[in-house]
């Protein structure tokens, strides 16, 4: 039997080589699942041929990387980049924001899954907990959606200001307190987490937290209005999703204003804006950005591949 030796927090452990485990890490680099399993079997055959019965993870990764380069350079590069990020010593806090319906929860799920991050929370859930603590009378906007918060403003804003955005800012400002608490706890405990939702807005979360090297924020957009609207239809068609389509559509005009505000805030605070048109391209952009900001190595991998 081939044993693989790894290390967690300075402690060594060994476990049997598993084609399934290797194949899973290859699918994260976007290799087709069937191809990944066949490739993992090839690696196993190679190790057997070389009569290797104990191998460290680093040695195994080198072999996988070399063989991958021969098969598919792009997948080889992705495989290595994902690994570099996963090996990052500090916990990773990934914040994904965007107007309602642009796909923050779908993308957050993919990113967490591929990076092996086990913690993910939506800001809607944080908001829901906060609603149990603070009364509607005290903070009426907390009880609204991001795009209806303007209706709860106690004092109407002057007509020259956009009331939708005033309401949105008020709503986000409150939920940001809860978001900050989650970030602080994750940093304190040393756990990686992806936090996503409409309340992740550049400029609203404390600078000392977002400026940390291991905290990365992204804003997702869908520039084409019709594609954005179509996302609500596709989401509400799913039987498990109990979300009122009519409500989103009738407030779509307000959601688009918030969408524009997200773009402006992202530009102002230098937060990467990623057009979420195609899932694979969105994930690729996030990963490239993460390697630039949180781990050195993206360039090295590209050079190694040539
Ligand atoms: N890149 C994409 N291509 C096609 N469909 C997508 C893409 N990203 C998300 N979707 C789909 O769009 C719909 C909305 O996505 P999702 O629920 O993730 O949005 P959200 O930003 O989390 O919205 P909300 O803030 O309202 O919860 C879903 O049906 C999802 O499957
Ligand atoms: O506030 C919002 O924009 C959305 C985000 O998911 O929440 P809900 O429509 O459930 O109020």
UniProtKB/TrEMBL annotation:
It catalyses: (2R)-2-phosphoglycerate + ATP = (2R)-2,3-bisphosphoglycerate + ADP + H(+). It is an enzyme of class 2 (transferase). One of its GO terms (molecular function) is kinase activity. The keyword ATP-binding applies. Residues 1-90 form the ATP-cone domain. The keyword Cell division does not apply. Its EC number is 2.7.2.16. PROSITE patterns: ATP_CONE. Gene3D superfamilies: P-loop containing nucleotide triphosphate hydrolases (3.40.50.300). Its cofactor is a divalent metal cation. InterPro entries: 2PKG, ATP-cone_dom, P-loop_NTPase. It comes from the Archaea. Catalyzes the phosphorylation of 2-phosphoglycerate to 2,3-diphosphoglycerate. Involved in the biosynthesis of cyclic 2,3-bisphosphoglycerate, a thermoprotectant. NCBIfam families: PRK04220.1 (NF003259). Belongs to the 2-phosphoglycerate kinase family. This is 2-phosphoglycerate kinase. The gene is pgk2.
């Amino acid at each position: 039997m081939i044993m693989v030796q790894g290390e967690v927090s300075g402690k060594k452990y060994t476990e049997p080589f598993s084609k399934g485990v290797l194949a899973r890490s290859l699918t994260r680099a976007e290799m087709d699942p069937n191809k990944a399993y066949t490739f993992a079997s090839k690696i196993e055959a190679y190790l057997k041929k070389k009569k290797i019965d104990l191998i460290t993870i680093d040695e195994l990764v080198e072999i996988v990387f070399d063989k991958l380069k021969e098969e598919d350079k792009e997948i080889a590069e992705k495989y290595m980049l994902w690994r570099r990020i996963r090996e990052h010593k500090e916990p990773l806090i990934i914040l994904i924001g965007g107007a309602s319906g642009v796909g923050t929860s779908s993308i957050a799920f993919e990113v967490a899954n591929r990076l092996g991050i086990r913690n993910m929370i939506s800001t809607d859930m944080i908001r829901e907990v906060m609603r149990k603590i603070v009364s509607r009378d005290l903070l009426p906007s907390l009880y609204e959606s991001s795009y209806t918060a303007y209706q709860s403003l106690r004092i109407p804003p002057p007509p020259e200001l956009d009331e939708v955005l005033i309401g949105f800012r008020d709503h986000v400002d409150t939920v940001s307190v809860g978001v900050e608490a989650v970030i602080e706890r994750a940093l304190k405990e040393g756990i990686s987490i992806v936090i996503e939702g409409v309340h992740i807005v550049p400029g609203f979360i404390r600078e000392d937290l977002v400026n940390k090297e291991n905290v990365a924020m992204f804003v997702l957009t869908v520039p084409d209005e019709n594609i954005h609207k179509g996302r609500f239809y596709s989401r509400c068609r799913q039987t498990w999703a109990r979300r009122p389509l009519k409500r989103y559509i009738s407030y779509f005009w307000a959601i688009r204003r918030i969408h524009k505000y997200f773009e402006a805030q992202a530009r102002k605070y230098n937060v990467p804006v990623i057009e979420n048109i195609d899932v694979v391209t969105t994930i690729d952009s996030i990963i490239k950005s993460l390697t630039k900001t949180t781990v050195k190595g993206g360039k090295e991998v590209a050079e190694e591949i040539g």
